Amino acid sequence: MKTLDRYLLRRMVGTLLRTLIALVAIYVLIDLLTHRDIDISRYDVPGSIVVRYYLAFIPQVLYRVAPFAVLVSGLLVLGDAAQNNETTAVLAGGISLRRFVLVPVLVCLLFAVGLFAFNETIGTEAARQAEQIDQGYFSRNKDIERADANWANLSEKWTCHVDKFNRIARTGEGILIHSTSGAEAEQIEARRMYWDETGGQWILEDGRWYVFTEDSTAVRGSRIRQRPAPFTETPEMLFALEQPMETKSSGQLMTEIINAEKRALPASTLWVDYHAKFAQPALSFVMIWLAIPFAMRVRRGGLGISFGISIIIAIIYLVVFSVTMSLGHADRLSPPIAAWLANAIFFVAGAYLFWRTPT
């Protein structure tokens, strides 16, 4: 590694770290003042819980602001080099622009890979903790805790409806379970159902199990005092689709997709989110290609103009990404295209601008 490479490496890494810290602090402060402040007062949330929540929330914030930190850092480091005629000196010395920006590009590539690995491990675990704190202290919505639940296409072709289900206690009231197999139909009515953690099964209490023929005549029935439910899905499998994507790694999401497809449930939305797990970290690599050409034009336009244009491009990217993801969730675009189209468009645009950058 040459002296120039070490110089750019120190500046890029140092600027990126400082920018990340600044953006995370601003994001957390805005979230606290505009979003959480009302809930903290309404539910009298202790200060220690607020601190725990934001410690768990910071990895999500880091994941969200990372691409913009790359954009700002690349613009500051390379823009400063151009403004101080360091770029001119390097190019005059026979070093190409591609060679000059090699280290910042590699830094951003490694940063994108590291960001993906970080989100797959620490990020998802922290997101689950933040979600638990949010539900336990900032929401306290009893209607959600005891809402109804419907699970179709369970094992052995069972369908289950629960009138009131407590997702925290994993207990339900008003149970109706039915299945149709061949010439007979079975129906289970129970007053209560709960998840037995020790036995790893759902337990039905106080009900009856009916078997009907095609003409709906009951041929036999039995009393239920306490017995296992006829399906084997765990709470994690049944409630997986309700959990935010931030709480799941790509491997967990793939498992949910396989389970959903086995139950003949729509999985296109899950496929879009799965591809987005890879596309979003890659945005950090895309952003450096948008920062380079504008930074090189600082000599003619000034850092302020280049910075403003880059921020506008970042906002446009968010709009395009949001639109393509929405189209993917609505089955109007295939999942890979929905997740990667915005990255592809802006990477091509950045590469084209870089190619046209005067040297």
Structural account:
This protein is an alpha+beta fold. The protein has two domains: 3-140 and 267-355, no CATH class; 155-232, no CATH class. Helix content is 64%, strand content 17%. The chain has twelve helices and six strands. The protein has helices at residues 3-43, 47-83, 86-92, 97-100, 102-139, 142-145, 235-239, 250-262, 268-296, 298-301, 303-329, 335-355, and strands spanning 146-151, 159-166, 171-181, 184-196, 201-212, 218-228. A six-stranded antiparallel beta sheet has the order 1-2-3-4-5-6. Helix 1 packs parallel to helix 5 (102-139), helix 2 (47-83) packs across helix 9 (268-296) and helix 8 runs antiparallel to helix 9. The longest helix has 41 residues, at 3-43. The radius of gyration is 27 Å and the shape is elongated. The two termini are 23 Å apart. The model has no long low-confidence stretch (mean pLDDT 87).
Key traits:
six-stranded antiparallel β-sheet, 17% strand
- Spatial ordering of strands, largest sheet: 1-2-3-4-5-6
Instruction: Pick out the low-confidence regions.
Output: none
Terminal Cα separation, in Å? 23 Å
What fraction of residues sit in β-strands? 15-25%
Structural class computed from helices and strand pairing: alpha+beta
Radius of gyration equals: 27 Å
Shape, principal axes of CA atoms: elongated
Query: Largest sheet at a glance?
Result: 6 strands, antiparallel
Say how many strands there are: 6
Round the mean pLDDT to the nearest integer and report it: 87
Report the order of strands and helices: HHHHHHEEEEEEHHHHHH
Number of helical runs?
12
Number of domains: 2
